[in-house]
């Protein structure tokens, strides 16, 4: 029985064609680590190059799901260039229902070797604002979510693109976790709190690591910009991964970024990393709108006295060194953390709190520094 099921799965995979290779995915050697359990659970790895249409992952999954006897399918996606260099793919383990990458690129976006892609303008996306940090754990995604929701509350049309592909936390923070629909080869973003949201976290499994190099990162970001039905936005906030790596470079190569916000905490180790992040954006021609200092102090709930748990003054010193405005200092609040875990941003859950008021002030400063109308016309 197991052998017959395997034969049927192999036959099904033989019907899935690769436009790049001009043959099926098996002959193109795009399928690896095929594992089938006696209960009909299937797990496999699909290897993608930058020239592949990423929707082939969906085609592979659907072809296997149609095979009689298959009860569950999980498809892991890996960078084919990493495999070619000797990188190992994870062994087949426990199975769960994988979600195929619903990205509908109709033509490969391959660039000649050594060339740099020209940025593409997306005027319907309005002002594209990157929210970045030099290191993890400083509350960058929390700041991004609350700024987006705060501007949406004021009537702006706002979207969030979660470009933190290594740790996509925006879905949980916004309280949306389902897979997006695809209509006429366009991805329909999810919506929460008046903000449109697109994230890799909607697509891959929660426990699936994103082991991807630069070309695949570039492809994902480019397709999330161009193949998602964002509609007409005033602002698109892009939540970047920490540091100055592939995602940051991919974004500025893919489109015009109208501004960056650097999030730090007061201690010097965070400020030093944030300095490098700000310098990176400046060197690639992206204006840094200002510095946001998060976790600035803990306010005593009884007497109101602030306690600087992580030192003080780091954000202000960084802003002065870079000759940039300090957009705001956000106090520590347990409600901020709780809201991030439950999908209730603090600007909605507790709008009169010190953190919410400061975030609202920062959002207003961003709107003043990057007026929506200048970039939102079609």
Question: Could you characterize what this model shows?
Answer:
- This protein has 12 helices and 17 strands.
- With 378 residues, it is of the alpha/beta class.
- Helix 6 (214-226) crosses helix 7 and helix 8 runs parallel beside helix 9 (314-322).
- The termini are far apart.
- Mean pLDDT is 83; it is low at 85-114.
> What structural category characterises the helix and strand content?
alpha/beta
Give the SSE string: HEEEEHEHEHEHEEEEHEHEHEEEHEHHH
How far is it from the N-terminal to the C-terminal residue, by CA?
Answer: 58 Å
Number of helices: 12
Secondary structure: number of strands: 17
Overall mean pLDDT score?
Answer: 83
Sequence stretches where pLDDT stays below 50 over 5 or more residues: 85-114
Q: Characteristics of this structure?
A:
alpha/beta, single chain, 378 residues, 8-stranded mixed beta sheet, 12 helices, 3-stranded mixed beta sheet
């Amino acid at each position: 029985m197991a052998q017959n099921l395997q034969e049927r799965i192999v036959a099904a995979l033989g019907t899935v064609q690769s436009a790049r290779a001009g043959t099926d995915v098996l002959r193109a050697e795009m399928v690896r680590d095929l594992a089938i359990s006696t209960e009909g659970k299937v797990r496999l790895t699909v290897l993608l190059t930058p020239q592949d249409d990423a929707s082939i992952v969906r085609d592979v999954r659907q072809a296997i799901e149609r095979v009689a006897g298959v009860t569950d399918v999980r498809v892991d996606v890996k960078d084919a260039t990493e495999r070619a260099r000797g990188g190992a793919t994870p062994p087949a383990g426990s199975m769960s229902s994988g979600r195929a990458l619903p990205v509908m690129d109709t033509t490969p976006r391959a660039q000649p070797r050594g060339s740099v892609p020209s940025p593409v303008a997306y005027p319907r996306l309005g002002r594209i604002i990157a929210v970045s940090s030099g290191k993890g754990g400083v509350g960058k995604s929390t700041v991004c979510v609350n700024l987006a929701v705060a501007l949406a509350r004021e009537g702006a049309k706002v979207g969030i693109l979660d470009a933190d592909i290594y740790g996509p936390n925006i879905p949980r923070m916004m309280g949306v976790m389902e897979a997006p629909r695809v209509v006429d080869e366009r991805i329909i973003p999810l919506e929460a709190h008046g903000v449109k949201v697109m994230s890799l976290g909607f697509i891959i499994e929660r426990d699936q690591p994103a082991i991807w190099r630069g070309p695949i990162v570039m492809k994902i970001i480019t397709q999330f910009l161009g193949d998602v039905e964002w509609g007409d936005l005033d602002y698109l906030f892009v939540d970047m991964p920490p540091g100055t790596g592939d995602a940051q470079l991919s974004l500025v190569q893919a489109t015009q970024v109208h501004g960056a916000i650097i999030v730090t905490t007061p201690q010097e180790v965070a400020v030093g990393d944030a300095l490098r992040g700000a310098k990176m954006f400046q060197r690639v021609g992206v204006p840094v709108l200002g510095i946001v200092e998060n976790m600035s102090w803990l306010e005593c709930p009884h007497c109101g006295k602030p306690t600087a748990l992580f030192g003080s003054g780091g954000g202000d010193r960084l802003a002065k060194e870079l000759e940039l405005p300090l957009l705001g200092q956000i106090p520590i609040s347990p409600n901020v953390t709780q809201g991030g875990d439950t999908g209730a941003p603090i600007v909605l859950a507790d709008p009169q709190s010190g953190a919410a008021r400061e975030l609202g002030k920062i959002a207003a400063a961003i709107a003043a520094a990057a007026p929506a109308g200048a970039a939102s016309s079609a």
